[in-house]
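User: Some background: our group keeps a shared notebook of sequences we're curious about, and every so often someone picks one and asks for a predicted structure to add to the entry. Today it's my turn. The entry only has the sequence so far, pasted here. Could you supply the structure so I can complete it?
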Amino acid sequence: MKKLTRSMAAFAAAIQILLPFPVMAEEAEEPYYTVTAAPDEQNGVLTLDDGTEWVKVLDLEFGQDYLITVTDQDGTQELLTVSDGEQGQYIWQYFTTSLATTAAPYWGLRTGEYHLVNDSGQLATDCSLFPAGAIIWQHDDFRLVNKINGAPSYLKYDAESETPFSLTEDPQEAAEVNIYTNGETLASSVTVPPCADSYVLENSGYAAPTFTVELKENVIADTIRWYTDGVEQPCQEMTYTADSLTDQPAGMHRICCVVEGHDENGVHYRSASVNASFIIAKGVLPDSIMTFSDIHEEYDRIGDAIEQIMLKTDGYIPSLVICSGDLCNGQQSTYDTMLTVNAPQIKAALGGLDAVYVAGNHDSPKAASYLSATAGLGAAADLPEEGGVIFDGSSEAVAQNGTNSRDAEHLIVYGLNYDAAIIRDGDTITYSYENVLPDLEAFLQKTAEQYQGETIIISAHSGLHVLGKQEGSVTPGSGQQLSSWIGYNPYNLDRSYDMVQLLNRYAEDYDMDIVYLFGHDHSRNENEMLLQDGDTIVSTQYYKDWNCGKQTIHFTYANAGYLSTRIGSADSKFCLLYRDGDKLVYDLIRTTDSEDLHTEITTKYRQDYASVEGFVHMAMVDYEQKTGIAVYPEAERQADGTVIVTIKDAAGSTLDTYTLDAKTGIGTDEHGREVNLPQTGMDLWEMVMLLGSSFTLLIAGSWLLYRGSRRKDRDR
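Assistant: Of course. Here's the predicted structure to add to the notebook entry:
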């Protein structure tokens, strides 16, 4: 391990030589934090000796450079500087790096080769490639704060101390910190982005859509510019009416607003809102879903995915969108942040399409359940944080509240939030489906009792297979097998094996069409995968013993698509799932080049051979033909797909009992002899032929009567 550490350090040093930053001289001192006098601020602008202007902002943006100042007691500003005794560096870059960890991606501040590090509560510099300590920083309410590993730590400044910079957990002791940038993107002033009220139908006579932005209360807007599909529009108001989008053919359009402004604190604002999707559709693809996982705040890709579907279907849109986890980025989002910051941006990208939500490890499960419940598409109003039914296409709620989802009558979605599989015992955390299994089984049992061929979708952020042991777990591009066991409990959940058994049982016993869609594994560099009825899945039995087992799968197990591009193997893919006759079609589509993994899956469910009343009639004919006895049967369909017909005489005494397959009408009597009701009387084809013949005769007779009446009229 020491050799590996030395090798990594040497590699990091070699990399740093190539970077355009100053490098320490060999005789330089250990680096330390100090201050450099900042130029006077004029209207929120600092001008350096080289003439470059740096403007005051609020937010740190990836890839941009910053000056970081602290304020003395007399109100003068000093630049946070790293010095090695010979030279100082005070231009900080806010960077992001992706690693294959559960906390990926991470971001931080560095100047030259030095990272700003919280090392167990101590402020430190670290110039290694992978610095030890917490490096995730945010600028929050004019303070520089590190919000990882327990309580927040704030940058503290003491001008009288030999080491003027340190960390404190007391926000009252935090230094007043301002940040300045010379980048194109400044602070964002838009609190509510523009959003289309709904999608519209081509040639429907829809009105010109209207879009509105809302700004922070203290922001004074200097300029407002609106863009439609990248073209600037003649509007400088907060509300924009897009007349040019009326009477257009089916397609996707994008609207955004760029606001430049300032506030009384000298903070400058200049940023574009997220794109609002405006969708003109030819129609809705029945019983279809668009689903994706792991978007990590790249919300424009939602619009890209919808556009890909419209291109593929010649203008049709999906009947439901399922956002299945890691909608947010970085540390787990809070409930308020997800609802006030992330959800409006997602809604704008959806363009008015109905959507439900599942939480990943970066999301608030409470917020995800709230969003699904308030969508009003079949979820319970008090949907728990663990998840549950988030969509029921046949429900009265969809009929009242749905738009495009009214065409998803044969879909039921059970959402499984990531936190539902987290078991906490003091400081010990275990990832297990132990507490999930009872509620899921109750849902499946209830659904089976009245199942009529709906597609049952289990939308979960985490999966059921073992990373590395599952065939198909390969690293992208190389095609090489991953290690034989990726031993991380957050990915290989305890009792996944039992979950597969549960889903198998209902898929087999009730011919239920079940599709389990997962995400999450992209940070392990795992490719998307698809398993069908008859394939083998390797799942975790008991993680603490590292036990796993193989079994044949009897449902569909597939990746929802990693829609982001920031981490690991994520490469902007999403899933389109829809019915086509007796098949389910699974398309895993990449937005960047339309690459499509197209798979057709034969459905398990078939319609009953006849209604219960039809079975009664056929059983009566069958028994009377066999015995010559007039009977009065009664029938009842069972949850397991059988029909029990009780043959009774006029006095109500039971003469025989038929146990029949509801799909075929074939079974046995109480003595075990075969009963084949399709051979009793007419089958369905004969019935269709008879109805067709009767209809033909009716039309012919009506025509002859009509011709006869016309002839009589002419004779008169």
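Suggested note for the entry: The first helix runs from residue 2 to 18. Confidence is low (pLDDT under 50) at residues 1-27, 99-104, 682-691, 710-716.
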